[in-house]
Amino acid sequence: MMTIAVVMVTGFLTLAMRGHTLVPSRLQSMAELSYEFIAGMIRDSVGPEGRKYFPFVFSLFMFILLGNLLGMIPYSFTFTSHIIVTFGLAAMVFIAVTVIGLVRHKMHFFSFFFPEGAPIFMAPILIPVEILSYLARPLSLSIRLFANMMAGHTMMKVFAMFTVMLGVFGVAPLLVNVALTAFEIMVAILQAYVFTILTCLYLRDAIHLH
Length: 210
Description:
Elements: H1 2-18, H2 26-45, H3 54-70, H4 83-105, H5 123-135, H6 137-166, H7 171-208
Helix pairs in contact: 1-2, 1-3, 2-3, 3-7, 4-6, 4-7, 6-7
């Protein structure tokens, strides 16, 4: 399913921009909107310095979005509802922003763990807290995506089982499942956005050290 997601994203962007025109087609408009959405997110969150990281952030967003949406197809596999996948993505983001911060600021990067203007006698307390908070980033990032996708799909499966068990009387759980499907599509898009905006915020911290 991850391979399918990559192929679909690549195919969508290739087909959308193959015959690009001044007056865009619907497919081209969708590709341009997705491009502008992520470009605007990076510009607003990171600033001009974040432009060079657009390919990474855009690829991450599209991959997670397709993974979430593909999971809505009956009998498919939602790879973003598995903690090992989401933790792998979060760990990749964590390592990338840490390396960017170290390369950009060298040893000054470690000043990030002691807020500017804080009294020096607070260092023994603030530094461990900041380090723990920083190291917890991949955990919180991965658990948020995994938990939201798994919980929603589990709820849909429970109500689907009620629909089958009740037969002709399963109208109520069927209606709930329809509503849950619409809600899950919204959650799928929202969680891709949340993961991406947090990645942008982590990039901002690595670049600007605040």
